[in-house]
Each structure stands twice: as structure tokens, then as C-alpha cells.
Please model this.
Amino acid sequence: MGSALTRAAQWTPGESGSRTLAPTPLNETLLSEILQFVEELRSAHPEAAESVFVEPLQWSTALQAEDLQAGYRVSESGVESEQQDGDGRALLLLSPPNVSVRTFSLLSELLYLSNDKLAEVRAGLQGQDQRRRCLYMCHKCIEYPPDRLAKKYLLYFSNHSTTSDSGLLLRKPGRGGFDIITSLLSIRSAPPDFEFANGCRAPPHRQLLGEMAYIEVEPYDAEPFSATYSQQGVFLNKGVKQYDADESDYERTSETFEDLTSLLKKQSGYFALNLHKEVEKCSGSKGNVSLFCLCSRSRGRSRLKDVLSESSPESEEEEELERRPDTNTDLPSEQLRLQKLIKYLREGDQTVTVLTMCSLMEFNLRQEAYQLAVRDLGGLEILLNILDTKEIRCIIGALKILRLVSLSPQIQRSMVKMRGVQSLVPLLDIQLPELQALAAETLANVAKFRKARRTVRHSGGIDKLVSPLPREEQDVEAARCGALALWSCSRSSRNKEAIRKAGGIPLLGRLLRSSHTNMLIPVIGTLQECASEESYRQAIRSEGMIKDLVKNLSRDNDELQMHSASAIFKCAEDEKTRELIYQYKGPQRLAQLLSKADNKPLLAAATGAIWKCSLSQKNVTKFQEHRVLESLVALMSEQPEEVLVNVVAALGEFAQIPANKAVIGQSGGIQRLVRLLTGRNQALLVNVTRTLGVCATDMKNMAIIDQLDGLRLVWSLLKNPSPEVQASAAWALCPIIENGKDVGESMRRLIGGFQLLIKLLKSTDSEVLASICAVIAKITEDKEENVALLTDYGVVPLLANLTCTTDDRLRRHLAEAIAYCCMWSQNRAAFGQAGAVAPLVRYVKSQNGAVHDTTVVALYQLSKDVDNCITLHANAVVQVRPCIRYSIVTHQQRHTGETLQLGTL
Model:
């Protein structure tokens, strides 16, 4: 039954990758036959109908609990049958809308009670894994004596499945398809010679296991073999030569391939090489090419790509799917020569091997077509085996080839699978600079994905790569390749630690003073990767590398300048490093890089370094001398997002100086910032809102923001799913609300604006909560209408729930929000009833003076309620009264100029 469903039913894609039965006449016929089968089974073979399924059938049903009466028990979870299996599990369990059935008898009874039987059958078959469970049911019935009932019905469904279905897996191939196959190998159908009505040639008992047909293949360059078509794919068998073959002949002897093409390419190198040539002859006739596939498992892919693709997808994050190159390379004209050379490489002596590798170097091995051809013909495995010999000439020749073919991502993964890394690492110990350089460069190519980098570390490769670095004076190339390999390996955090423990930092610092540009690029690239770790930043500073990094900003090499600026971007997180950058005239050199606006990677690195350096006011002053601020504003148009993120962040630091806010506004910076609020890049939105909030403290800038409807745009970012964007937008709203005109009325016109604030008070991010509390404090300050609206939306209990926090920043703004919300009606009593008073007393013991300022105002407002006074006294507020008095006086001096009274304290 499971096989019949897969072969004959017509399926359409559904949600979440599932499939549903299409509303076609074929499916309606199939559903009717299944319904008839279930109903007849209960009456004609009651004992078989009571057989318990290996796994239950489960689906969503339209039946309700009241539809089941006699013979069922009602519980809180639903309705279950009194009949149980050997493990004490109910054979039927109904928990609307879900139902679970374990016998045909109960299944038939459910269908009898249903108003729409076919709908129930359809729902049952569309459930995930239902076809597999149908197969389990058939197995169970086969074991039941005496008449092999399930086999009988299996043949019934198989023979009644229509062969006109487009989803049928075995079809008559077109003439063009046979021309392609027979030009590359001999292929014929294995016995039996007749077909069942469903298109299958396998015996019924093998069809039950998903097998459909068998073929015999005679490649031109390998021994003949027999293969099996199945629902899972194509695989080799022991040799099915007759219809009544022994069961052992059907046994699988290879991995399962997605399609016949993949199996043939694996078994026959001649077929793999000539396939490209034959497919070109048939280009434009996709229907003929499709016969190579057993079935179309990925409808989104073209037929031609199905032919050319391998069937070994990788599971690691950084790995790409196997693909064949889309190239116009004239590979067929060279393939026989390449095939012969690989044969000589396999069978020749040392001299022949060296000469053969020299001939291989004549091919353009940087082209992916040739790289994959070397692998498919078995050349890659031979080259890796040569690395384990002691013949230096052969090893060097093999490394020269591997260095080129390993540029392909597919070859990199193949080398790791073949344990090529374990063969390369020991070569680093051989005291031959040329050999060390070749081995290190090959490792640099291979270590482009996580598994390869991990293998290098586990093989002891990090220590061996560090050792060639001190010999830069003797051999620049060996040291350069060693640094190149370390650069690739340093993308892993554990490898960074391994490099540090191996003593790589001082050695990299020594190489940083080299005069060779090709040496400096991988060295600085390694430092750039490692500078994300704080320990590395400290080591880079203590080893005196900052001076060299700044010096390299003036080198006449864009790539070197880019990596130097990127390293400074990461290192400038520390204040002491920024001081050194200022001392070595880094701001002047970075300002000069802004003139290279056409080089986007360099521009992104330079603006990033300017951003981090501008965290120190001394650097900002120096940047202003070179008119960097105006240049940054000009760069806010038509730049990639990686540049804009850095430019906007740098403007935010420049705007900390009041005079610069006016310059940004006069240069058109506010308009450009507001336009960026409609983007989707989260890092950019965080920086834009932060910079806009700083600029909003200037009244002229605020007028521009009001004119451009900036309040609404910033408020809309509170809906962004990123907590960082939500918090940054909320902080930006505070100065906009404080300095804008008629902001209170504008906020009330925002549809769903206040409800959004209430929703965000349920966030689990403390930064979001603190910023939202700050916004609430701003919109409720002297604005009773806003307090009333927020109270109606339930702001009081939500604020009270947050009072147990230990985060001082949240405490400060939470207390301020509570203080202003107390201005309305019965909110003081409501806060007391919600348990907000007692936790607030503990805020006064904080070491943060800003927390004291807002807390005492909140306590003052709460103390106007008698019940709150009792709570305050019970929580020993009198013992902290001197601190409260001092804070109240301080608050009044800072804000109102009037002394707040202690109320009833």
C-alpha cells in the first residue's frame, strides 16, 4: 500500500515542505479503493483486521468526542478505546482534532461514523510518514496466517495503479536518451522482461520493499555490474539475473545514489568524462536528458543540472553543494590524454611519475573542469598517496598539482574526506623551504571551511605552521605560505588560541616589519582575524604592532591598506590603542584613504577604522582638521551597506561635539539619515537611530526631523524584531520627544503607538525595557492625557512587575516612569497594590547616583498614599532616610529648584 501510494498518487507541495494529495480523478479513484479495502477487510477477514499496527496511523479528524459512545472511555485528554495492545496502550485515542488508530477494525469503525469518509482517508494519507506506516501495516498483515492477505491487496492496488500518471518512476525513455547512454556504455534491462500494470519489473515481494526494476550495465572501462532501481534511489546489487533469483542476489552492495547518472559516474571514469560531450550534443532537448534521473526529487532544478550534479550534499554550515562547472572549456578534446596520464601516474615508476606530473602541469589546472576531472579519474587519491612516500621529487610534483586543484571548493572537501590534511601536515617538518611552502599553501587553500580547520588543529598543524615563520630572512616564500595557512586557520576561535599558545604573536609581529608586501598581506590578515579576541588586542599593543599597522596605511597597495585598516578597526576598541593610533598619526592617514571611494572594500575598512578611532575626542579633533566630517556626510549617498554602517556610526561619534551637530545639519546629513530609516539592515538601523538621537538635541536639526516625519519613522522601528533595533530606536525617541513641537499630539495620532510600548514592556531584554521606560517617562512628563491612555492600556502592573530587577540602568528609568505615572488618578494606590513599593526602597542602596535621583522622586509620589507609607515603614525606609533626603535635595537642585517634601515619611 505504501509503495502504491508513492508510485501512483499525485502529490502537490504543501506547507513546511510537506505534500498533499492533488484533487485529481486518479487520486479520487485511489481513495475509493483504499476505503473499499478497509471496509471489506473488517467483514471478510475479522481476525486480520484486529492485527495491531507496528506504528499508529495519526491525522487530524473532523470527528468529535461525542461521536464515540459504547466501548470507549472518556477522560480529560479525550476519548480512548477499551481495547489495548500488549503494552497497555489504547488502540484508539481521540483528542480532537487529533486521532490515533492501531488496527484496521477501529479504523473501519471510525470511517463508518464519519460524515465524509473520503475526506478522512485523504487526511490520514497526507499525514507525515503515513506512507511509511502503511508499509508497516502491510508487513504486519503479511505475518498473519493463513492466506497472505496483505500481499493479495498489495497486488490489487499495484495492478490498479494507472500508468498514465506523470509521477510514475519508470517510463519509456526517448530515443535521444538511449543515444547518449549507449554511446558511453552498454545498458540493458535485467529479467523479468515483462512489466506489471504499474510499470514496475520487480517481483511483488520486492516491490513491497520499494524496489521497482533491475538493470545490467557493461562499462567500456570497468567490469559489468547489476543495479537496482528503488524509491530511495539507485544502488548496486549482487547480480539479479533471473526472475526467481535468490534473495541474496538482491542485496545492496554500494551506497544509494540519487539517480543513475551519479552511479554511472562513480563506476565509470570514461562515462564521467564523456558525459559533458554527449550532453552538449543534446542541448536544447531537455526531455531526452531527463531519463538519467530515477525520479524528479527536486522540481526547482533544471533537467540539465540534474544530469551534471553530484548527489553528495554536505551538512556543514560553510559547505556548498557539489556542482559541475558551467564553463566553455574544451575538456572533451583533452580528456583521453588526461585519462592516460592518470593511468601512467598510477602504474609508472618514479621517473615516469615525475614526467607524468610535469605533463599534468601543462593543463590549466586552475580551471574547475580540469580540477574535477582529475578527481573523478582517481588522480586526486593517487596524488595524496604520493605524499606518504619518501620520494622528495615526487612529493614536490604532487604538491604543485594539489596546490592548484585545491582552489576548488569541491576538491577541498574531497581532500579532507580522503585524509589529505593528515598527509600534508607532516611535510611541514621536512627542512626543505620549497616543500614547506608548497605544503603550507595547499593547506591554506584546503582550510577554507570549518571541518578542514579543525582537522589541521587536531593533526598538530598549527605548531608546525608557526615554526617556519622565523626563517623569513632565509626564505620569504616559506614564511609567506606559512602565514597564508595561519590566516585560513585563524577563522576558527580555537585555532586562534592554538596560534597564541604556539608563540605565533611575537613571530607575526616580527614579520610585520618585513619590506615584502606579499608577506605583509597574510600576516596582517591573520592579525585582523585574531584581533576579535581581547587577549590578542592586548598582545598586539604590547608587542608594538600598532605603529607598523598605522605605517602600512601609507603603503602603495590597496589590499595591504584594506587589511591594515580592518585590523585597526578591531584593535581600536581599546582606549589605549586609540591613544597610540593618535600618537602615530593614524587619523591623518585614515583621512587620506577616504579619497579612494571607488574601492568599496578599502572604503569600508577605512570608515570602520575612523568610527572606532573617533570614540576618542582627540582623534575627532584631528579628523576635523582634515575635513573628515564633511567627507563622511557626502559618503551617505549611493554606498553599499557595509560602508554606510561605519559612516553613520562615525557621524554619531562626531556629533558628540555640539558644533558638529550643526555641521551635519547644514551639510544635508539629517535628510540622509532619515531616508536610511526605511532600510532593513539591522546594524545600519541601530547606528542611524543612535546618530539621529544625538543630532536631535540641536533645535535646528529637530525642526528638520519634524518636517520629514522622523518621529513616525523612528517609532515604527519599535516593531522591528531585533532587540538591538528596538532599544536604539527607543533611546532616539527620548530626545526627539523632548525637543519636538506638539509631540504629544503627534504621538496620540500614531495608530497603535501606545499599545506598542505596552507590548515591549513584556520583553526579556533589559536594554529594551530600560529604553521603553525612558520613553514612557518622556511622554508622561507633564502630559496627563498620555498618562491616562497608558493607564487604560495597563501600564501600572507591567511597570510593577519590573521593579525586582538588579540592572541599575533599568532601575533608573523604571523609577522615573513610575514617578510620572503616579500623577494620574489612583495610580499611586495601584502601584502599591501591585507590589512595586517595597522593591523600590532597595534602589536607594544602589551605588549609582542616577538611580537615587529618580528613585526618591518615585518614593515621594508613592508616599502620598497612606497604604504605601505603611509599606515603606515596614521595609525600613526610615533607616535610609538620610540618603533619601540627600538625593531629594540633589534632585531639586538639578531639576526644579524647589525642595521636595518627604511627605509622610
Remarks:
- The longest helix spans residues 25-44.
- The mean pLDDT is 79.
